[in-house]
Design a protein that fits this description.
binds 1,4-dihydronicotinamide adenine dinucleotide; Rossmann fold; 45% helix; seven-stranded parallel sheet
Length: 267
């Protein structure tokens, strides 16, 4: 299915690691809708992931960039504009990593230098990315910037640990930078709050499989898949959503509005 919603648009997709990644599906969908893109991920992900395969499939150049490195980001936007032949129209931030979760430190025994690194990778990178784009004049007027987030920013999900604060910070950056980017360039900035999804980052969270089942039963429409997330993101990159900005948009089959669902009692 293609409606050419992104014809003549150029974009950069951060965070496709393998075919399970949400960014992988979004990249495929953007190209299917007529966009021309570059792909980027951390140098280590280029070595161990499958992003090069995706690049070949989509005819997209893969540019390594660690999002905590200003030099890498400068290079990424310079190269992308070169390859795509001008400024971009949309950017996806699909990046998350918690050092304390990965190293199995509990929330009440956090190592603070790891926490700072977690915030740097998972949230401050969003500000850094936008600040770089603004300084380099790398995005067209009426462009669209999105980051993926999770409802643990608003409600408590104990095993999500410090990623909850990362997501709260990320969503706040979308609002604050959304003001500046909107006033200066008519660029919109939003976050999409996605259902639990079976990916490398997702399944790193303790008890993820059980939680996935719980959320699926709690949501009237069931969990939203990565494929449907890609469909939604395409609309948010398209000209049909030009006046939507500074929002946290739930893409979760209704989970965020539920109190209790009898289906859950059958678990
Ligand atoms: P994923 O593991 O496929 O993607 C995470 C990406 O972050 C990877 O490609 C990884 O290489 C990249 N990354 C980590 N450190 C980096 C660095 N220093 N520089 C550049 N890139 C770096 O997993 P997934 O689930 O597709 O995650 C994408 C986004 O979706 C994340 O923001 C995640 O928090 C969010 N999300 C995921 C949900 C899930 O249940 N899987 C639910 C809601 C949101």
């Amino acid at each position: 299915m293609s409606n050419n919603l992104l014809a003549n648009k150029k974009g950069i997709i951060f965070g496709a690691l393998d075919e399970k990644s949400i960014a992988w599906k979004i990249a495929e969908r953007c190209v299917a809708e007529g966009a021309q893109i570059t792909l980027t991920n951390a140098p280590v992900a280029l070595r161990f992931g499958k992003i090069k395969e995706l690049g070949e499939k989509l005819n997209a150049t893969v540019i390594p960039a660690d999002v905590t490195s200003q030099e890498d980001l400068d290079n990424l936007f310079t190269q992308s504009m070169d390859i795509l032949g001008g400024k971009v129209d949309f950017v996806l931030h699909s990046i998350g990593m918690s050092l304390n979760v990965r190293k199995k430190r509990t929330y009440t025994n956090i190592k603070y230098d790891w926490m700072q690194k977690t915030f740097d990778i998972s949230a401050i990178s969003f500000h850094r990315m936008m600040q770089t784009m603004l300084k380099m004049d790398a995005i067209n007027d009426w462009g669209s910037i999105l980051a993926l987030t999770y409802i643990a920013a608003q409600r408590t999900f104990p095993d999500y640990s410090e990623m909850a604060e990362s997501k709260a910070l990320l969503e706040s950056f979308a609002r604050s930078f959304g003001y500046h980017f909107g006033t200066l360039k008519k660029v919109r900035v939003n976050t999409v709050s996605q259902s639990p999804t079976m990916t490398t980052a997702g399944s790193g969270v303790k008890g993820f499989d059980e939680f996935f089942g719980y959320a699926d039963k709690m949501s009237p429409l069931g969990n939203a898949s990565a494929d449907t997330c890609a469909d939604y993101c395409v609309t948010l990159f398209s000209d049909y959503t030009k006046m939507v900005t500074m929002q946290n948009l739930y893409h979760d089959g209704g989970f965020s509005k539920m109190g209790m669902n009898p289906a859950v009692l059958d678990l």
